[in-house]
Fold this protein.
Amino acid sequence: MAFRKLVPIIAIIAILLVSATAFAMNTGGNRGGGERGGGERDFGGSNDGTIIILNPIKTSSWNAGTEQKIVWRYSGVSPDQPIQIELLRDYASIITIASSVAIDKREFLWTIPGNVLPGSYVIRISSMEHRASAALSDEFKIISVAPPTQ
């Protein structure tokens, strides 16, 4: 009798595990780490196109209100391909940092808005031509809110 009550719970757990695995695979769940930086993903719709986010890395701690450099490298992608750069918290986009940036720029200077709360974040760089293609940085910290300007 008790087993019959557990069957729906076990089914729900199985569905959640499958969903989480699919989410991790589609969003760059293997974000890399170590010396090379962030996640490497198929980029541009072909198997040889990749992008790797080099900065921020997992040890990065950025202050709101400061200028920071987002850096990436790429291969197998047309150099004029436009990308979008976003700030994610809990893997949900909260700020579009930039749109229509040429991938061959390889870096972007971003002034973190003063109202971004302290916490853990991820940068996502995605192709504007192939929305399913994206790379995620390592998780990094924004550690303080900028003081008010007078």
In short: The chain has one domain: 31-144.
